[in-house]
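User: Let's play a game. I give you a shape written as tokens, and you guess the letters that built it. Ready? Here's round one.
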């Protein structure tokens, strides 16, 4: 899995939920009009697709963007099967 795979999946989920194309990967999804119920559905679909568990509390602590989702999903996939939470917030702070 690459960041490009994640980006493609995020954009496909947004499209499937009827949202228009984003201005860029740094666009805040909520500011783009994605309501919280749809965002939870999108995140759940991404967790299933990439077999990861996202820390929603940390994710919602800052604007949710495609770039942040790429970083968090890539990080979560890289640490799948480990019990350490060290570095959990590092990818989100970028």
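Assistant: Ready! My guess for every position:
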């Amino acid at each position: 899995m690459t960041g490009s795979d994640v980006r493609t999946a995020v954009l496909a989920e947004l499209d499937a939920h009827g949202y228009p194309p984003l201005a860029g990967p740094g666009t805040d999804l909520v500011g783009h009009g994605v309501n919280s119920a749809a965002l939870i559905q999108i995140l759940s679909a991404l967790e299933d697709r990439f077999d990861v568990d996202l820390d929603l509390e940390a994710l919602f602590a800052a604007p949710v963007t495609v770039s942040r989702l790429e970083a968090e999903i890539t990080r979560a996939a890289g640490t799948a099967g480990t019990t350490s939470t060290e570095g959990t917030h590092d990818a989100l702070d970028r």
